[in-house]
Amino acid sequence: MYELHEREVLEKLRELDTKRVLIQTPEGLKREAQFLAEFLEENGIESLISGDINYGACDPADREAKMLGCDALIHLGHSYMVLNLEVPTIFIPAFAKVDVIKALSKNMSEIRKLGKRIALVTTVQHIKDLNKAKEFLENEGFEVRIGRGDGRVSFPGQVLGCNFSAAKVEADGILFIGAGYFHPIGVALATKKPTLAINPYSGDAIWMDKEAERWIRKRWAQIAKAYDAEKFGVITSTKKGQLRLGEARRVVKLLKEHGKKAQLIVMNHINYQALEGFDFDAYVVVACPRVPIDDVENWRKPVLTPRELEILLGLREDYEFDEIIGGKRERDEPMGVNLKLPKSL
Amino acid sequence: MYELHEREVLEKLRELDTKRVLIQTPEGLKREAQFLAEFLEENGIESLISGDINYGACDPADREAKMLGCDALIHLGHSYMVLNLEVPTIFIPAFAKVDVIKALSKNMSEIRKLGKRIALVTTVQHIKDLNKAKEFLENEGFEVRIGRGDGRVSFPGQVLGCNFSAAKVEADGILFIGAGYFHPIGVALATKKPTLAINPYSGDAIWMDKEAERWIRKRWAQIAKAYDAEKFGVITSTKKGQLRLGEARRVVKLLKEHGKKAQLIVMNHINYQALEGFDFDAYVVVACPRVPIDDVENWRKPVLTPRELEILLGLREDYEFDEIIGGKRERDEPMGVNLKLPKSL
């Protein structure tokens, strides 16, 4: 399912005169990371594997690489995110080998319910197939829009769990291609438009609108649970792409202005277990928006996003998803192995 | 149980002209950390609390403090360890308020079994009571030795889970004052002398020799389980005082010289869960020696210390504890609030 371009990686490392490299991998590519480490070692480059679980390009191990005396970092599984890196970093996104057209053909009658003008979005795994999908849909008579997205994503049409900028185009409805619930629910919430998710592995099509409604009801329940809270822990993450210190400080200030107590907590992997023992009535997570949502069952205290807190404090009426907005993207990333250098190089 | 010298801390922070500080705390002092943060904020110093679980001075959050724009770090609960810090750091050890003499008096008949010349050791919690205990025992007719220890510890007579240098003095037996099993077992293993552990909270006295034997049998079982292993993951930690990169590379080299496959893994909080999915037959943990021992039940693969690996490879016959040795200690640390500056200041 995953193509590893080990020779291309080796060449890039040799250009950089790399003696020692750190390899970072998501859960699903651990064997590939081991294979790559072995291959590079056979070719004279000392290779260390990061054992820390990695969830995204928002968490590059460039600081660790530098500390370990590595000349470079290899980040497997995700495309580049604009971050100030400390060592040259090679991003190798994982592209799925699955026929997206087959799943689209199977669900034409559902897709037609979206309207004539549809916005097409996906995750990085299927990004290479997006133009093929566009052509197929155009042949079926649709007007297909692929949003450019902002600087937090790498490619037109790409959405992240924290960024749906590419979905925000003039369209009657949104077609999401990919697996999982979190991304398409985010699309539905961020665009407030009819959203159909097509899973290219299973061939299933799911309308996200009902899911999004159910989901919002759950979030309102969290907000209600926090109504009597007096002491808030406001949490941000030391992961480079999740460190929203300015936003966290704004939230602390906001809480204090509303007569609440608030303290700023900073941690790497945000989880309730590590917070047990602190004396807070509720938490606001200002980091990855998935954390207070995906993991909510494990929290014994109410846990909100900054926008949900604004509802709690009466500063906002409508539910809004906590997106992390990027700057303007100057140009798209190359599709495959992609070397990024620190600014100083 | 814990005295917090918040005014002294405030003064030191003001001397440093601190605008923003990060506070790091072990599990048991979370409320104190919150209290301190609140006190400092009332006095005009923005205070962030680290939510990452902290186990020792080997894991200072100085890098994180720097990244967060903090002028200083407060490390609660542990005494200073010689490390190259990146921001001025205030160490505030936790001293227990418990009567150690009462527990000693109660167990005189057991203590006498140690012999006439005894070495006295403890953890930082009871270090302030060590001289009182020495005097008491001398009045009871003992010749009491308190080892100076090396540069990894801060005080004479102090032992850590990874360093028993203060126990290595001429003596018939060792008297350990403190709670828990890990430290006194380490003392027994590192000194190979009769070791009596007196818990000042419960008043219990436990001979560690049988415990140590049972413990060694368990470790031999781990070694045996790894006999057929071909592929080894050699793990070190990015925690500043646990990063034993030289030793880890030595272990990788050793394994390769013995015809095994070996790869170097680096991670922050070492735990088996994060390693699941890698294709290794066994692991060697070259970081905190407690990790492969305390947590062994959670590992589905054999996990060894570097010295246990040497036994496996036939390079060592006797069991030896994996200590982390320090350099020479120039002078003892002050007993209370203790400011350490980066070398560059």
From TrEMBL, chains A, B:
Origin species: Thermococcus litoralis (strain ATCC 51850 / DSM 5473 / JCM 8560 / NS-C)
Enzyme Commission code(s) on record: 2.5.1.108
Primary role: Catalyzes the first step of diphthamide biosynthesis, i.e. the transfer of the 3-amino-3-carboxypropyl group from S-adenosyl-L-methionine (SAM) to the C2 position of the imidazole ring of the target histidine residue in translation elongation factor 2 (EF-2).
GO MF annotation terms: 2-(3-amino-3-carboxypropyl)histidine synthase activity; 4 iron, 4 sulfur cluster binding; metal ion binding
Pathway: Protein modification; peptidyl-diphthamide biosynthesis
Family to which this protein belongs: Belongs to the DPH1/DPH2 family.
Highest taxon, organism lineage: Archaea
Obligatory cofactor(s): [4Fe-4S] cluster
Name of the protein: 2-(3-amino-3-carboxypropyl)histidine synthase
Signal sequence extent: none
